[in-house]
Amino acid sequence: MPNIASALKEEIARVARKEIRKETEGLKKASAQFRAEISSLKRRIVDLEKAAARLSRTAGIEKRTKADPDQAPRVRFSAKGLASLRQRFGLTAADMGALLGVSAQTIYNWEAEKSTPRQKQLEAYAAVRGLGKKQVAARLAAMAG
Q1: With b meaning 16 or more CB within 10 Å and e meaning fewer, what string describes 94-128?
Q2: Long-range contacts for 62-69 (Cβ within 8 Å, ≥24 apart)?
Q3: pLDDT tens digit string along 75-117?
């Protein structure tokens, strides 16, 4: 006959494991559910961050295209661009300076990248850049005469 103490000990251990299994089963299910929710929320966060980045990029584009009436449009300037524009029109630095309202020395300094034009001068540069060769000649003739 087996020892009663060892049989009792084995039975107590079996019942304890059974009870622990019942208790931990609910916790395991809840833990698995929470993990699934967390991964779903992480995916949503990634999608929302991508959408926010897309919207900020498009908003940035709209912001750049819709200029405030108080703010003048941004004009890009390069020394090489000024030199090629002057050559295309066949103008001297003095003539280009007269068109833009500056001196010939200022035109040379801009082309040599020793200085850059101010906002008012950039606006005049943008206006001249949009003209044709005949229009430039007509403006110079009107200034001279």
Answers
A1: ebbbbbbebeeebbebbbeeeeebeeebbebbeeb
A2: none
A3: 888 888 888 988 888 888 888 898 888 998 999 899 998 888 8
